[in-house]
# Entry
Amino acid sequence: MLDRRRSALIGVAIAFLTGTAPAHADAVLDHVGTYVWERDEAPFGGFSGIEIAPDGASFHALTDRSHLYWGSVQRDDLGIVRGMTVAGRAHLKDSSGNPLPPGYTGDSEGLAVGADGRIHVSFEGLDRVVTYDDPDTAGAPLPRPPQVPGMGQNAGLEALAIRDDGTLIAVPERSANETIPFTALAFDGAWTQLARIRRDPRWRAVGADFGPDGWFYLLERDFRGVLGFTSRVRRMRLTADGVQDDEILLETRPLQYDNLEGISVWHDGTDIRVTLISDDNFIFLQRTEIVEYRLRQTQAQALRN
# Structure
């Protein structure tokens, strides 16, 4: 009994120190590396979305002021990010070809890049999703999504992901209250309410992606005041019968990272990797971080298999 208790306490301590999920979870995320991305230009910062290419060598990154960056990722022999080279930047435009201003109409939050290369961006404030065949051309707004309880000017369509079949999934930042589930909206020619995702008190949805394993990964954030931000990553299956196999993979400590808002899930040739990006809110005390984790199957899942 004492040995079991000691092992349990050690497991809890390791989870606290590393920010990983408890050892009984089916899978956990192991930290790979953190890179602080800096660039001396006014539009740089406020990143709310990121997409890493399937080979891990290139990226798209979205700011919350309608600027989209793209380029290449430099990695060392261990696959750890050592640099981000910008190949281009575009100021996203409205359907008339006018650059979007910051604020109500230009608060870009969610990013999803389809297999066809088209770029999809969700906005809060004026809640909508816009598709770009090219980031330098006018946007093509989708039909306006339905308003669901909890959506507001600073709590709109924060998280956006795209399935292999091209269906877009959008999740508002919050629900009607902390005990009412998030509403996941789906667009496949028309908007529908796809699923209701459990919401735990304090946590808000800020990013989403579908992994190469078909699971839906949700990034959530909690602001702890002077203690800064905490983040967690969940994965689940979105099925016709609703949400299944919902589990927490990662919960970070206060001040462990900055304000993580974007998530990209991809395969590095060996394992599934999760890349996160932080929003520095254009405040000099904060920073833009690229944080990467690798998915590890736990013994609990191995025993099931």
About this structure: The chain has two helices and 20 strands. The helical segments are 2-18, 299-304. The longest helix spans residues 2-18.
